[in-house]
């Protein structure tokens, strides 16, 4: 059942829209079959999104724990947001597990990527919790940037398999809705810090996350392309064109990435809920039982 959670913005000082609603859409996708090259019959978009999806089950579990670790003492508004955020992310994890299973059915070694994510997250154990939250905040900005681009630019999924496109659009809608939660949790957790320390740690972490994100996703995607018989400069050039030329998701999100470094930045500086409105009503309540 789709469960809207209306946020009472009178209880906290956040730039989030006064009428912000976070809706938990309990949807199911990809329980049947999909084409091997589901992204317009083309390997580069398919491999990029397969590699991205392979990171989500463990990655979103990490996001959930990082945010929950700092919910103590949160005001009622933020506490509501965190609960809705967790419920949305749990559903995203479930659906990407199902999608990853289909990629494996086509012969892709998705588990190798998942294993590398597990190894990386194991390295984070024992470090200060606020660093996990800072990483989550940066990565949530990435998901929100890509979500806005995917919904706003039909070129990304225009010729994709309809079932897969529906999953990515559903995920994108909810990423936009909760894009301020990790950021507001960070502001709550670091409320006793100086503005300079908060700004410095936030931005340093974004630079570190950016370097890791593109290095690892590039390597993961090339590995999947190799499994598809595409190697060497053909693989690298094709992937680079996909990311920077057409449809060019990396090129197109660069201004939004740069905005993160602005003093006083908040994810809701730009209200892009109109993109959600374009897709509302397309998601029917799922009838399948949870797995």
Give a topology summary.
Layout: E1 3-6, E2 21-24, H1 43-68, H2 76-105, H3 110-123, H4 129-152, H5 162-177, H6 181-189, H7 195-227, H8 232-244, H9 249-259, H10 274-277
Helix pairs in contact: 1-2, 1-3, 1-4, 1-7, 2-5, 2-6, 4-5, 4-6, 4-7, 4-9
User: Level of helix content?
Assistant: 55-70%
Could you state the oligomeric state of the chains shown? single chain
Q: The biggest beta sheet, please?
A: 2 strands, antiparallel
Task: Give the CATH architecture.
Answer: Orthogonal Bundle
Which strand order spans the largest sheet, edge to edge or round the barrel?
1-2
**What characteristic shape results from the CA principal axes?**
globular
- CATH top level is Mainly Alpha
Q: Which structural category fits the helices and strands?
A: mainly alpha
Order of helices and strands: EEHHHHHHHHHH
**Strand portion:** under 5%
Question: What is the radius of gyration computed over CA atoms, rounded to a whole number of angstroms?
Answer: 19 Å
């Amino acid at each position: 059942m789709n469960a809207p959670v209306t946020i009472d913005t009178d209880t906290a000082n956040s730039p989030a829209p006064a009428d912000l609603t976070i809706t938990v859409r309990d949807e199911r996708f990809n329980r049947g079959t999909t084409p091997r090259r589901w992204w317009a019959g083309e390997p580069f978009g398919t491999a990029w999104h397969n590699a991205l999806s392979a990171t989500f089950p463990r990655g979103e579990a990490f996001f959930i724990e990082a945010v929950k670790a700092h919910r103590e003492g949160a005001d009622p508004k933020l506490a509501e947001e965190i609960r809705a955020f967790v419920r949305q992310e749990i559903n995203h994890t479930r659906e990407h597990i199902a999608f990853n299973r289909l990629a494996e059915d086509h012969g892709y070694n998705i588990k190798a990527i998942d294993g590398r994510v597990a190894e990386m997250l194991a390295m984070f154990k024992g470090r200060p919790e606020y660093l996990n939250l800072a990483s989550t905040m940066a990565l949530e900005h990435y998901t929100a940037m890509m979500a806005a681009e995917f919904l706003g630019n039909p070129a990304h999924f225009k010729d994709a398999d309809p079932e897969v496109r529906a999953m990515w659009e559903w995920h994108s809608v909810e990423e936009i809705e909760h894009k301020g939660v990790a950021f507001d949790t960070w502001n709550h957790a670091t409320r006793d810090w100086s503005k300079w320390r908060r700004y410095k740690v936030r931005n340093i972490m974004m630079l570190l996350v950016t370097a890791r994100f593109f290095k690892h996703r590039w390597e993961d995607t090339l590995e999947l392309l190799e499994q598809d018989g595409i190697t060497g400069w053909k693989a690298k050039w094709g992937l680079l064109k996909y990311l920077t030329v057409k449809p060019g998701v990396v090129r197109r999100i660069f201004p939004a990435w740069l905005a993160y470094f602005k003093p006083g930045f908040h994810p809701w500086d730009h209200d892009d809920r109109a993109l959600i409105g374009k897709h509302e009503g397309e998601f029917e309540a799922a009838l399948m039982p949870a797995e």
